[in-house]
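To whoever picks this up:

The nightly regression suite flagged Protein of unassigned function as changed. Nothing in the input moved, so I suspect the structure step. Input below, exactly as stored in the fixture:
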Amino acid sequence: MRLSLFAALSILASAASLDAATAAELLRGRCHMDVCSWFSIEQRDLVASSPAGALFKMSVRTWTSTHPNGTYDKRTRRVGGEAGDEYVFCSKSRPAVVDPGDKPGTWIAAVLVPIGQPAGATEAATARYFAACHGVALNSEADLDRYAQAFGYKADGEGEQLDLKRPEDILKPAEPVRR
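Regenerated output under the current build:
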């Protein structure tokens, strides 16, 4: 699926709207099995763009908190705060979060399906994607569907993982080798 230049510019404009206040905000990723993940985007820089979208490199800090008996609304102490680099591909046709692979010099892109996406392991990645690309926090599945529709995502496609030699490979029109 090819996007028009206008659509690509819309994605860039939306992604560029992330302000400094949102960038350092502590956001919740996923709560499951008595543990919540948390993150903040410390820095975000445009790496490259194509008609399909824009690739940003982010410095992300992560934490976890424990919530006995699933009491997620109760504040508890967060531990961690480790910083790491991650890439996000802001795209209506192939939205993705790109992380280092298991082997040095490899990368894995998790292609997301923002509408109708089942909760699960991609929930935290989707929260980071929407924070980085649209400057919004997802606090519930209802937020995900509402924002995904508002930003023009379609309920088509499948989530998948792609092996990449470098993060910029997500920009290529031909699909990278599938995992």
